[in-house]
Design brief:
Strand content: 5-15%
Pfam families: Longin, Synaptobrevin
CATH class of the largest domain: Alpha Beta
Number of strands: 5
GO cellular component, one term: membrane
Subcellular location: Endomembrane system
Membrane topology: Single-pass type IV membrane protein
Protein name: V-SNARE coiled-coil homology domain-containing protein
Strand order of the largest sheet: 2-1-5-4-3
Shape: rod-shaped
Radius of gyration: 51 Å
């Protein structure tokens, strides 16, 4: 059960509400807890002793604190704190950092009372909207994750296809390289054969011309006079 709620800047109370009269001892405990809270405690729970459980959220230097029993669900309590913080900042964000102690108590204390009573009477209904939002976000996140998984699987298939094509290209390149070497070797052999044939033809032509101009195979016309003597 929510028994006490306060809006404070540091240890300076701006507005508060309690279901029972706050005794001097209780006030001392609350001030002690407020002094422990700083901007780093964005969302926290404090156990002062077996009777005092405090929960708080801090927004823009303003602390929203409430006291509950041990049995209260943190989800409901923090939903209550978020509710009053939203209402307070919408009304007083422009004056909250300069307001004096209890300056906003007359206006905001009744709203604290109304909100606190509603959460005490209907804790499940009060936090259901928040739970629905969280559930919806979880479902949306789940859908996004499934879509991402599908995309990854599809991308994996495309990668497999690229790997296969790459392997095929490598094989084709190897085959082409081997064919090119064989063709080069074949062309070289043909060139050698052609050169040999050309050289043989050249020799035959020289021999033929020699026979024609020298008077036959005896080469009579090509012999010198000394050879005739």
């Amino acid at each position: 059960m929510l028994v006490y709620a306060v809006v404070a800047r540091g240890d300076q109370v701006l507005a508060e509400f309690s279901h029972s009269e706050v005794r001097i001892q209780e006030t001392t405990v609350i001030r002690t807890v407020l002094q422990r809270i700083n901007d780093e405690h964005k969302r926290n729970t404090f156990k002062y002793d077996d009777r005092h459980f405090f929960h708080c959220i801090v927004q823009d230097g303003i602390c929203f604190l409430c006291q509950t029993g041990q049995e209260d669900a943190p989800r409901v309590v923090f939903h209550f704190l978020e509710n009053i913080s939203t209402q307070f900042m919408e009304r007083y964000s422009h004056v909250a950092k300069k307001a004096h102690a209890f300056e906003l108590n007359t206006e905001f204390s009744p709203l604290l009372q109304e909100t606190m009573e509603y959460y005490n009477l209907h804790p499940a209904d009060a936090s259901r909207d928040k739970l629905d939002v969280v559930t919806k976000k979880v479902e949306q996140t789940k859908e996004v994750m499934l879509e991402n998984i599908d995309k990854i699987l599809e991308r994996g298939e495309k990668i497999d296809m690229l790997v296969e094509k790459s392997e095929e290209l490598n094989e084709s390149a190897f085959t082409f390289q081997r064919s090119a070497k064989e063709l080069k070797k074949t062309m070289l052999c043909k060139r050698i054969k052609t050169a040999i044939c050309a050289f043989i033809v050249f020799l035959i032509c020289v021999l033929f011309l020699s026979i024609v101009f020298c008077g036959g195979f005896a080469f009579k016309n090509c012999k010198s006079d000394d050879d005739d003597k």
